[in-house]
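ok trying again, last paste got cut off:
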Amino acid sequence: MIRLTFLKLIKEKIFFFLLGLGFIIRLILMPISTHSDLFSLNFYPPLLIENGIWDVYSYLEEKSPKLFYYPPLTYYTFAAFQFSYTFFSDSFIPWMNELRSLNEEGFKGQAPDYIIKTNNSNIFKDLFLAKVPYLLFDILAVVVLLNFAKRKIINSKNVIIWILNPILIYNAYIFGHFDIIPLFFILLALYFLSKNKYYLSIFILGIAAAYKIYPLLFALPIIMVYGKSPKEYFKLGIILSLPFIISSSPTLISDPKIAIFAFTKKLFNFYHKNLSEWEIYSNAFKYSLIIFSYFLLLIFCKFSKLKNRWYLCVGTGLITVLLLLTLVYRAHFHYLIWTAPFLVLWFKQTKKLVLLILILSLSYASYKTLAYQLQLGLFSPLNPEFFSNLPTFNEMIDKIIPYRIISTLGFLIFSILSLYIIGNVLVELIFRSKVKIKLANQGLRLARR
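nice, full thing came through this time. structure:
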């Protein structure tokens, strides 16, 4: 008994040590690294604070049709945080205004170029503040995961895997993207879904989708699984759209077309480039495959008799993300973080989960992070001239062997592993889960006898 208590105490100490280590790593990285995406997220919200501009999309339309900002809720959220920054920094908003002016004047460059051009003496403090929202939502995500662990839905070790996940650390604290915010709402939605509160879950997923549109892909299977009639589908769809309608109301009143375009403009800007004939046919095939596969998933969700509906929704969410990352050629490396909630909730074996995350990260990075601004160039705040001139890892390897071999191998490993995970999930959902349910029912009957 004493030995068991001692072992439990040691495990608890290790757990809290690793938990603390994860947050120390975050605090160290927050002020010393960035990508230009962090600037683009932050240099429009001051318009709300200083100029009272609620409809930023009409403002962008007047300035230039090429300018882009993320969905409205992102604008309001970062504006709220930036207002709080004014109590800690006199330079943050003036720096963002200067960056915005450069952008609107047509300045082109990466983070080192912006840093050199603006020369902010408080850059480390201001970068730290810019990432504070990520830290807060990350802490909230950990709280949700601890509640999952408390209810024995996941292993408590999975919480540590979340904390030390290299994809999450890269995405939020090195690269400086805001995916952790919609990810928190996805986790929270799945938590309430596990308690069968699917109306609340759908509304929270709507909040996630009001930050980035991709959570809608996870919401539709939930509507198919939990909705009992076309009337309820419609009701859940209205609930899902409420966060978008509310957050977009200033632009909807001004110009509904611009409000809708705010969610899709990045796609239009990103994919308008001229493509070769092969790329056109290849993309057409890949997108057709994604749409067809997703349609089959929705049918499967509709007619599945699986009693654990939450498990079904987590599984289909994981399949959807992996299909997108594998088949969408222009998906960025930091999008890999979209898999995090589903991997952590789906896989119970710690060693297997760690191995999968590491292999997915390394293989995907091998052909998705080739530019200097995605590697050591991210640490340009420390010394922009030095870090922007460092050779990339792929350039160094290319001197020894053709890097094309490494990137092709990485692509094949990622694709094969994604297909393996998808197959694993489908087998679990179609066969093993039903067997477990059947055995459980037999056990209940025997107990009653």
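cool. DSSP finds 23 helices and no strands in the chain. The radius of gyration is 23 Å.
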